[in-house]
Amino acid sequence: MTGTLYTIGMGPGDPELVTLKAARILAAVPVVAFFAKRGRIGHARGIAAPLIGAGAAELRFEYPYTTEVAHDDPQYRAAMDCFYGKSAESVAAALDGGDDVALLCEGDPFFYGSAMYLFDRLARAYRSETVPGVAGMSGCWSRAGLPMVHGDDVLSILPGTLDEADLVARLAGAEAAVIMKVGRNLEKIRRALERAGVIDRAVYVERGTMSGERIVPLRALVTPTAPYFSMILVPGRQGIR
Fold it and tell me: I need a surface site. Which of 18, 23, 70, 207 has the fewest CB within 10 A?
């Protein structure tokens, strides 16, 4: 009998936002797998720390790149494909040995989550179950006290890596928006919001639900770049309510 792959959403950062199901599985599985930046504990692993069962083996997968190489660079794509392939092989070896594996993912696994790349490689060959997690944007707008959509509002979720003209066009037609992958794209995003005429509604959230949380109107933010755990919220709810 092979083991079961559990792909587990660990939520936005606050350990109290981990689901009961995720906590139960983490306490029971013999193997826990997670991603981490070189030299860091790994965000999802940090959230899971008090929940992992005693004696569980760990599979740590260190990204070859995070922000050092552009995502559209062929070097990045080749290295990441190799990385995910080897990581999947490590998980498969544990599953073939009969061990259940909990693969951790910050936020929700199927929403910009690295875990989906291992899921793509393994889910057809092994028993698999995905445990949803509270998405980072949900944690951020809750902490910011920003009701985002109501009635017939449409929410647009945009990666900040889009080019400026595309961001402007999408923001101009959006009733509400969440902009992720801010990082070094902050100034471009700021210009796009200004050009789309929605910058005065934009709120910047950094490390939402975590230690060091920062929530400010985007116009009050003077830094030219943002850390990894940051996003920009543009609430809708402009109509009658």
Answer: 70
